[in-house]
Amino acid sequence: MNIAALIDHTLLKPDATKADIARLCAEAREHGFYSVCINPGNVLQAASELEGTGVKVCSVAGFPLGATFSRLKASEAWEAITRGATEIDMVINVGALRSGDDEAVFAAKGTLIAKSSSKPRCCPTMKNFVPVKSASKRTPTS
Fold first, then answer.
1. pLDDT tens digits along 84-131
2. Which entry of 72, 75, 102, 134 is 20 to 30 Å from 140 by CA?
């Protein structure tokens, strides 16, 4: 079993530099990691550095708290997809979850699906949204 192919190599520090992202991508290529997981502002660089390598680009939405508006999380996710992210880790609203407000918990997922013309698949934890087809760097609709 190739354990490296299961690893999301992650750098979510808000002060990550371009050199830090380049190093993260180089390590992911070298070790054959599944993906790099980065903040949305670093997606374009990582997508460029990892193009053709098989290493996926994962970004986050609603990170770190998840306690923001669903439309903002969906918009953040969509922007990352249009810049080259192939996977999104969306942070759920834990307060809504603890309150039993399932509608609020899953609202961002529904908004993201509505914005996308490709049908996403979701992992069982409902954390990752992976477009089945690339978003083709389309301009998001409002």
1. 999 999 898 889 989 999 888 887 676 666 555 454 443 323 344 333
2. 102
Is the C-alpha dihedral spanning 33, 37, 40, 42 positive or negative? Answer: negative
pTM: 0.76
Domain boundaries, the chain: 3-131
Would you state the structure tokens that stand for residue 41, as one six-digit string?
A: 């502002």
Is the backbone peptide bond immediately before 140 cis, with ω within 30 degrees of 0? no
Angle 118-119-123 from CA coordinates, rounded to 5°: 130
Distance from the first to the final alpha carbon of the chain: 44
Contact (Cβ atoms closer than 8 angstroms) between residue 39 and residue 16: yes
Strand partners, 36: 9, 57
3-131: CATH topology: TIM Barrel (3.20.20)
